[in-house]
Structures are given as C-alpha cells and as structure tokens.
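lol so apparently i was supposed to do this last week
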Amino acid sequence: MTNIVIIGGSFGGLTTAYELRRKLSPHQATITLIAKDKEFIFVPSLPWVAMGSRKLSQISFDLAKPLNQKQVRFVHETLVQIDHEKKKVTTDKSEYQYDFLIIATGHRSANEAVEGLGPFGGPGHSLMSAPETEELGTALKNLLQDPGPVVIGCAPGASCIGPAYEFLFELDHLLRRNDIRHRVPITFVTPEPFVGHMGMGGAGTIRQLLENCLDERDITYMVSKEITKITKDTVELKEAISIPSVLSMIIPPLGGISAIASSPGLSNPKGFIPVDDYYRSLVADNVYCVGVAVAMPPVSETPVPVNFPKTGHMTEQMAVIATSDIISKVKGGRNREENTMLAARCVLDMGDKGVYMSVSPVRPPRNKIPSISEGRRWLVAKKAFERLYLFNARRGRRVPTTLGW
Ligand SMILES: Cc1cc2nc3c(=O)[nH]c(=O)nc-3n(C[C@H](O)[C@H](O)[C@H](O)COP(=O)(O)OP(=O)(O)OC[C@H]3O[C@@H](n4cnc5c(N)ncnc54)[C@H](O)[C@@H]3O)c2cc1C
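anyway here it is w/ flavin-adenine dinucleotide bound
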C-alpha cells in the first residue's frame, strides 16, 4: 500500500487529491490531505467579496466532507517542517511518514516589503487572503460614505497582478453606480514596464486594450514605479512622489510559507521550491510541488522587478502533471501525460464587462498569437465558471482545466 501525503487544501492540493483518488483505489494508496484551513475558498472570487457582491460562505466549503467521501483522510493541522531524508512531515500536532509527498502550500504575503502595507500591520489594504479581503470590504464601505482619493497597485516584485486590475475596474464601476466617481480620483501604480505585462511579458493586444480602458475611465496610471511607503493619507514612490490616498489596495510580493523555507534543503531563498518538468523536487526523492509554492523565474529583467504569475489555472495543470507521474510510479508503466504547461487562460472582471486572455505557451516567445476578447459575455462566463467549479469541487469532482478561468 502506497502512502501519499498532500499538504494544502486549495486548488493544488484538492486537484491532486481528487485526481489521485480517481486513478488509485483505496486498496492501492492511502491519501492524507493536511491543511491549516479547514475550508476551501474559491480565491479568484475574493475581489467580489471586497465589493460586497459575494459572501465568503458563498465561495467556500468544508474540506472534510468531500474528501472523506472520496476516502481521502483530511487532517486539519499546520505544517511545521518536512524532513525529506526521513520522509517525514511534522505538524503542530503530529508526525506523518510518506512514500510520496505533494506540497501545495501556496504563498506567504511579504507585506514587509513596503512600509505600511497592512492591513493588520499598517494602513495599506490587500486582498491576498479572506481576512484581508473582509477588512478591505469594510474600508470600501467607509469610502462610499466618505469619498476621497484612492491608490491601487502592486508592490515591487509582485507576481499576482491580475487581481489588482480587477479590483481597479470593479471599484471604478462601483463608484459610478453610486454616483460618486467624480469625488474619487483613482491612481494605478505598478512595477510593470507597461500596462498588461502581468509578469508574463504581456499578451497580444492586452496592453492597448487596458490602456484604452484606463484612459476612458479617467484612471491615472504609472508604470515602472516602486512603492516605498504607505501612510494613512499617502502612497509614496521611490522618486519622492507622494500620491494622496484615503484608501490604498496594494498587492504584495510573495514568498513561500515559513514552514517550507525552514525545512532544510527544499526551497530557494524566497521559500519557493525548485522543480523539474514533472513538478518533482530537484533534491528530494518522491517530493512534488504544485501551485504558487513552486519556484519560477521572471520572464525577463525589468527596471522594477515583476515576478512570474502562478494562476489557479496553471496550478491545476501542474497538479495533473505531477499526479500522472506519481501514478505511473505507483502502478508502473509509462507516464502518458504531457509534461508541459500548455496555456494560461483567464478572464479579467472589468466591472461592466470581462476580458478573456489565452496565451500559449505561458512564457514568450509564443507559438500562438494570444487570443484577447472583451464583452459582457466573458463576465457572465466568469461567474458561471465560479459556480461550476464550486458545484463540482463540493462533490469531489474536478473541472477540466481546458476551460480556462
Ligand atoms: C485575489 C486573487 C484573485 C485571483 N484570481 C485568479 C483568477 O481569476 N484566475 C486564476 O487562474 N487565478 C487567480 N488567482 C490565483 C489563484 O488563486 C492561485 O493561483 C491559487 O489559489 C493557488 O493555489 P495553491 O493551491 O497553490 O495555493 P493557495 O490557494 O494559496 O492555498 C494554499 C493552501 O495551503 C494551506 N497551507 C498554507 N500554509 C500551510 C501550513 N503551514 N500547513 C498546512 N497547510 C497550509 C492553506 O490552508 C491552503 O489550503 C487569484 C489570486 C488572488 C489572491
């Protein structure tokens, strides 16, 4: 009997668990999923929670029920350390031996990169987690009562840039619906060398499309900028520029979680795990890593650092590739799964419409001309995908990644 341990219960961990169990019966493998959060949260919908159009309860569910139904043991504990030489995982409550280990622990928000980037340690807001998003939602309600200038953007070294654009355009739309947009000057500040770079080197005509959207919505934007400090009423840039703001939402750079960073030999200095094409650790036997926890270099050097994005869609593809490798080892035989991540597909919510982007491969130069399309139908599709994903995930089923998000 093979003993498989998965750490993380989000897109990477859950996809791995469902895929492994689909192909390995309980007689072939025991599967244990350890996560510090007992709920799965559909993270791409967090901007809607901040806007007040979703409650957290609508986009989350308890992991225990669907996992137990699939005969995957769910353990609600926090990883403390991995000893890959002894094939042992230590949590805050216990120890687990493994034959195969899959790490899908996501990120740590490196808020300390910018002085004042909170929300719990400073005045700047963020939406990288559920508590931060709920706090931002409260700050937004206050803004609607007492309007003033807003700064939205990303800190130097950020990689999760798409949500900053979504929040920006959703906020613009919300303010217009409340007839107060004329009382809220909005500035977008980004380390990207051009609008729509998003850590992927841009995608087809996305730059022109976003620039047009920013211009027609009277949103001031600044590229290649380094935010250095956030105060109660300003956002400060390196060039001694001070932008007034009563509310700021700044996406931080990310690092790996501290338990991984402190596990000897597994990660790079940022706490991310270097892997090969099958998402196998380069140093540890039978250890895999998928999702945001994976180390990936930026596409190129930029005047202000911008890191490579690791989206939910990519995370699912990584999980499928890693799983297929584990299954071929457990069952014997050749791994038939393609070992390259084929595409990044996503839909950006622009408030009154959606923008669909598909790039393949993810890193330039690209074989295919990126596909960019805009319209209300994409917003409808994004909302439908959220429902479809949650409906299936709650029932122990995976939504095929080819759909894109
Ligand atoms: C606001 C926002 C909007 C986004 N929108 C999109 C989008 O529209 N489309 C898209 O494709 N992607 C989007 N993304 C990116 C997507 O959410 C991530 O790629 C995805 O969540 C990564 O999944 P993951 O499994 O790697 O890690 P995470 O989702 O970060 O989950 C980490 C898991 O590890 C667990 N964990 C962490 N530390 C420990 C520990 N010490 N012990 C045990 N368990 C631990 C957590 O409980 C959690 O279950 C968005 C991200 C954000 C923040």
